[in-house]
Amino acid sequence: MNWSFSKILFVLIVLTVLFFWRVVFLSEVFYVIDHSVQNFPFRAFFAEGLKQGKLRLWCPYIYSGFPLFAENQSGPLYPLNIFFFLLLPAWAAYSYCTIIHYPLAGMFMYLFLRAFGLQKPGALFGALMFMFSGFLVTHLLHTSMMNAAIWLPRSLPRKRTAYGAVCIFAALLQGRAFSNLFDLPCCSDNFRL
Fold it and tell me: Which residue has the higher pLDDT, 166 or 104?
């Protein structure tokens, strides 16, 4: 069987759609616990400001004011947050931005495993295990942690590259620096596999 990269990516996307079908077709949204009290409101607040051409640093709606830009979980500079929230209504953007990280996680792990010489079926299996792992599925409520964690496989190349550093930077933009402390050895001069 010919396992082209586009077919692998298609499988990852289809399985994600099947797993999150209610949210993908917008009959439900992620809106419980951390989604409703922190993640969605913070991102919607920043998106509203960006649509007005402003980068909001301060939120007057939390207590007597709060430096929301400094809060490390809202990800106001994270490229995927900006992309989805500028294009879509906030509730749809939040759902799609959350879901897109699962096929990305699978794709990044697939590429990582292929770089280490695994055959395509084995790399696909590993990608599926990562994208639907207990960590990523459980931390769906903690979107910033999940969004940062998906970049791990791309930040662990066989040898140091600028691309690995860019992936670490993308994870840091999401706002979970402590989740990515284990990525930093990839940028070290002493990193060898």
Answer: 104
In tens, the pLDDT along 38-72 reads: 788 888 888 888 889 888 888 888 888 888 888 87
Q: Do 17 and 36 sit in the same domain of this protein?
A: no
Q: Is the pLDDT of residue 35 over 80?
A: no
Among 186, 177, 187, 175, smallest CA distance to 81 is for 175
Helices assigned H by DSSP within 77-161: 79-87, 90-99, 101-115, 120-131, 134-138, 143-149
Taking the C-alpha atoms of residue 11 and residue 4, their distance in angstroms, rounded to an integer, is 11
Looking at the fold, whether 60 and 109 belong to one and the same domain comes out as no
The Cα 67–Cα 1 span in angstroms is: 54
Same domain, 92 and 113: no
Residues 6+ apart with CB under 8 A from 129: none
Q: Please say whether the dihedral angle defined by the alpha carbons of residues 96, 85, 174 and 27, taken in this order, is positive or negative.
A: negative
Q: Of 79, 98, 117, which residue constitutes the final position of a domain? A: 98
Residue 182: which domain range? 5-22+99-187
Strand partners, 59: 66
Confidence (pTM) = 0.80
4-8, 70-74, 150-154, 162-166: which is most confident: 4-8
Domain boundary among 98, 118, 133: 98
